[in-house]
Design brief:
This protein has helices at 7-14, 94-97, 110-122, 155-167, 181-193, 208-213, 223-228, 233-246, 249-261, 265-278, 293-302, 318-329, 334-340, 343-348, 395-406, and strands at 23-33, 38-48, 51-56, 66-69, 74-77, 79-84, 100-105, 129-132, 136-138, 149-151, 173-175, 198-200, 218-220, 281-283, 366-369, 383-388, 391-394. It is of the alpha/beta class and 440 residues long. It has a domain at 7-76 and 357-409: Urease, subunit C, domain 1, CATH 2.30.40. Helix 4 (155-167) packs parallel to helix 5, helix 8 (233-246) runs antiparallel to helix 9 (249-261) and helix 12 (318-329) packs across helix 13. It is globular. Bound molecules: zinc ion. Residues 83, 85, 106, 312, 417-418 line the site of zinc ion.
């Protein structure tokens, strides 16, 4: 994948045989180490092209180097939103505006997303790094043209579609709750053979424990986990499958409520221990879930389950901050919440050598904050500037990038989320608290 560290850059920088045009020096910053939950003050960060090449108390840079004084400010790794749906080109600049330098796209039109990814890499469009599954796999057609799915009904179809998506080089395989049980197991067996990750919803006819043991890489949303922790799992699963088939949101809510009322500590402990053992990540997407599910999130964290922050729709970029706040409200520390959007996504992507912390040799994807996020997670919203692939933008230029894309297109395109069981569908990215407002 694309996160390889280029050792030659380090050598070039230290031998000064490079053009300084692409260099950036951030001075006087407090660097937040998300792994240890500590801040180190008075640090300078030298960036060459898209990489951090040196960190120290004082760094001498060539004259032409662009210098950013970050005195009194805090530097964290770029944030990742691990559950989004990229449905519109004009939503992309909103992610960096909110410090989100990477997203995991859980289902969208692969051709369009690939096109946008190419534009971002060329520099003609402002947007985050993108990991995408292309269209997610489901047992029924999508009711939303912005969220195309590949319909898979049999094990044979599952294998065929896996081969096609693998040939198209999707980053992983995304799945939705109505994927049939036998197709799911055929898919996951094929995926394991080719070292591909399968992630997303657990199909309604598969238990969370089965999905963990089949090595599904992430379980998104709390539905499957909730069912698996209920003493009434079998009965509620039948009701859940039927409600999904009917698209009956009220019945789905009833199932959720009944599951919450019948949670069993022994069942949840067994599941969470298995998830921790097999490193099955949980993406709770709390903004889309029942408030009471928060207690399960804290139990998962305590059992050693890896939590990934994912917003699933809402307002691009901004919703991730809401998710971080909900994780802290659920009982995670600010440092644990920060890790769920930095270091843990990096490990999930097998890219911890290149992203996820602020260290020499890693990608220069950074967020400069006006206040300490370890003191209050809401401080991740206080963004002074963002470094994305080595390029620094202040709040104003990031806002201009959003305006450039959104204003000509504001009536044309919306923002997607999982449907039908998981969210209210589309919502506006330019509402009253949208990305235009917090400009400073
Ligand atoms: Zn989703």
């Amino acid at each position: 994948m694309k996160w390889a560290v280029h050792a030659c850059l380090l050598i070039c920088v230290h031998s000064r045989s490079f053009a300084a045009d692409n260099d950036l020096l951030i001075r006087n910053a407090t660097i937040i180490d998300v792994a240890t939950a500590r801040g180190t003050p008075q640090r300078s960060i030298l960036i060459h092209n898209s990489q951090i090449v040196a960190i120290g108390p004082s760094i001498q840079a060539p004259k032409a180097t662009r210098i950013i004084d970050a005195g009194g400010k805090f530097v964290i790794p770029g944030l990742w939103d691990m559950h989004v749906h990229l449905t519109a080109r004009n939503q992309l600049p909103a992610y960096p505006l909110h410090g989100v330098t990477g997203v995991r796209d859980m289902g969208s039109d692969y051709d369009r997303v690939n096109l946008w990814r190419g534009e971002i890499e060329k520099g003609s469009l402002t947007g985050p790094h993108i990991e995408t599954c292309g269209p997610a796999l489901d047992g029924v057609p999508s009711g939303d043209p912005k969220l195309p799915v590949r319909v898979v009904r049999t094990p044979e179809e599952a294998r065929t579609v896996f081969n096609q998506l693998d040939d198209e080089s999707v980053d992983f395989i995304g799945i939705l709750p109505q994927l049939p049980r036998d197709a799911y197991f055929a898919l996951i067996e094929r995926a394991r053979k080719y070292y591909s990750a399968v992630a997303g919803d657990v199909p309604a006819t598969v238990s969370a424990l089965e999905a963990v043991e089949a090595r599904q890489k992430s379980i998104d949303h709390m539905s499957a986990i909730l069912l698996a922790c209920s003493t009434e799992e079998k009965r509620l699963r039948q009701a859940y499958v039927q409600a999904l088939e009917r698209g009956d949101r009220e019945a789905l809510d009833d199932v959720e409520t009944a599951a919450i009322e019948t949670l069993n500590a022994q069942k949840s402990e067994t599941l969470f221990q298995r998830m921790a053992l097999f490193e099955t990540r949980s993406v709770p997407a709390l903004a889309e879930s029942h408030e009471k599910l928060a207690t399960l999130v804290l139990e998962m964290q305590r059992a050693g389950v890896i939590i990934l922050a994912g917003s699933d729709g809402g307002k691009p970029g901004e919703s991730l901050h809401q998710e971080l706040e909900l994780l802290v409200a659920a009982g995670l520390t600010p440092a644990q919440a920060l890790r769920s959007a930095t270091l843990e996504p990096a490990k999930y992507l097998n890219a911890a050598g290149s992203i996820g912390t602020v260290e020499e040799g890693k990608a220069a994807d950074l967020v400069i904050l006006d206040a300490d996020p370890l003191a209050d997670i809401r401080n991740t919203r206080k963004i002074a500037g963002v470094v994305l692939a080595g390029k620094y933008s202040n709040r104003r230029s990031l806002t201009l990038a959003v305006r450039k894309e959104v204003l000509p297109n504001r009536d044309r395109e919306g923002v997607g989320a999982c449907a039908p069981s998981e969210s209210a569908g589309t919502s506006s990215m330019i509402g009253t608290n949208g990305p235009f407002d917090p400009v400073q």
